[in-house]
């Protein structure tokens, strides 16, 4: 019975995230995780920035401690919930905790807002400035001198990559946690794995870079994120065509997406960007500015069209359809096994 209650809490949390998103009256777990990562990382950079070995092993400590505390907090709440026979307060914590692990509403709303601004007829200087500010919030590259075309491409690349980090990655590990707790409450559960993945994703987004101090400090964080996102990104690859009109081109699209995605240094980002690019018929990749350096990413779907606001809205629809498909499949697996 407790497992069924947990399952219903999970479904409710997905609906809450889809309709409401992150409530402003609650402190988001990412804020707490980010505060801890920043404080420890800044200390290591400011005091040991010239020592690569200390940064390297210090980065491992930052990663393990952040993930460990996130997992431990989630597991503690799960154990209290089960041992107290479905305590309402703990159930509420699990509900909001699981909802905070998924970023459907926030991600889709932010890019749709950018698309709507770009589609306005009055693309004056003030409107372009607002668009750049909104794009800069969701990307790590420097878009201060970007054209509208590049801003749309940047937003699309962020949307397609973060759909895995912010939606399908957490969903996958939450699924695994609910499934494991059918066998024992002492196994990793949905909240402990959800919090852990959120910590891994936050570590990668804050320190998992390949320049300056972060090349050493964020090495382990980036590798851990690669490992824990490997399966979700490939599940997106093989399931996304199922919710698109291009299902009749299934084999061809998978092959092209995988080959183009492999060109990226990241084993996951290229894969997720490529499958969305081929299904929506757009071209991604090319030159982008990071700090003071111009980086040229491999081209994905070279024969595709340039990104438009319409493409962004279509990709948002695909994400919602795929999320719905995943939930249906998980419900079937949960009750069959």
Automatic annotation (TrEMBL):
InterPro entries: Cobalamin_biosynth_CobD/CbiB
Membrane-protein topology: Multi-pass membrane protein
Pfam families linked to this entry: CobD_Cbib (PF03186)
Top-level division of the source organism's lineage: Bacteria
Pathway: Cofactor biosynthesis; adenosylcobalamin biosynthesis
Bilayer-crossing regions: 54-76, 88-108, 167-187, 318-336
Molecular function via GO: ABC-type vitamin B12 transporter activity; ligase activity; threonine-phosphate decarboxylase activity
Cellular component GO terms, alphabetical: plasma membrane
Compartments it resides in: Cell membrane
UniProt entry keywords in alphabetical sequence: Cell membrane, Cobalamin biosynthesis, Ligase, Membrane, Transmembrane, Transmembrane helix
GO biological process: cobalamin biosynthetic process
Principal location class: membrane
Family: Belongs to the CobD/CbiB family.
Job description of the protein: Converts cobyric acid to cobinamide by the addition of aminopropanol on the F carboxylic group.
Identification of the protein by name: Cobalamin biosynthesis protein CobD
Origin species: Prochlorococcus marinus (strain MIT 9301)
């Amino acid at each position: 019975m407790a497992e069924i209650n947990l399952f219903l809490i999970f479904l409710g949390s997905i609906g809450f995230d889809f309709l409401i998103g992150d409530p402003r009256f609650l402190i988001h777990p990412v804020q707490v995780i980010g505060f801890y990562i920043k404080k420890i990382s800044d200390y290591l950079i400011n005091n040991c920035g010239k020592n690569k070995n200390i940064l390297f092993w210090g980065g491992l400590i930052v990663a393990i401690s952040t993930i460990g505390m996130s997992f431990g907090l989630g597991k503690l709440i799960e154990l209290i919930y089960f041992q107290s026979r479905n305590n309402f307060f703990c159930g509420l914590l699990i509900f909001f905790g699981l909802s905070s692990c998924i970023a459907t509403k926030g991600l889709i709303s932010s890019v749709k807002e950018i698309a709507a601004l770009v589609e306005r007829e009055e693309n004056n200087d003030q409107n372009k400035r607002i668009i750049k500010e909104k794009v800069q919030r969701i990307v790590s590259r420097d878009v201060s001198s970007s054209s509208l075309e590049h801003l749309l491409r940047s937003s699309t690349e962020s949307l397609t990559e973060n759909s895995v980090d912010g939606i399908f990655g957490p969903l996958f590990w939450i699924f695994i946690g609910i499934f494991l707790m059918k066998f024992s409450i002492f196994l990793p559960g949905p909240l402990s794995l959800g919090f852990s993945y959120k910590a891994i994703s936050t570590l990668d987004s804050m320190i998992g870079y390949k320049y300056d101090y972060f090349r050493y400090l964020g090495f382990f964080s980036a590798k851990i994120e690669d490992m824990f996102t490997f399966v979700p990104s490939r599940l997106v690859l093989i399931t996304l065509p199922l919710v698109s009109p291009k299902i009749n081109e299934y084999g061809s699209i998978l092959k092209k997406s995988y080959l183009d995605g492999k060109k990226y240094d990241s084993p996951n980002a290229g894969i997720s960007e490529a499958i969305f690019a081929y299904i929506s018929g757009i071209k991604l990749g090319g030159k982008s500015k990071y700090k003071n350096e111009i980086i040229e990413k491999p081209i994905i779907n070279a024969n595709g069209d340039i990104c438009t606001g319409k493409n962004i809205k279509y990709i948002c629809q695909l994400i919602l359809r795929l999320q719905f498909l995943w939930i249906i499949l998980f419900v079937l697996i949960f009750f069959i096994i």
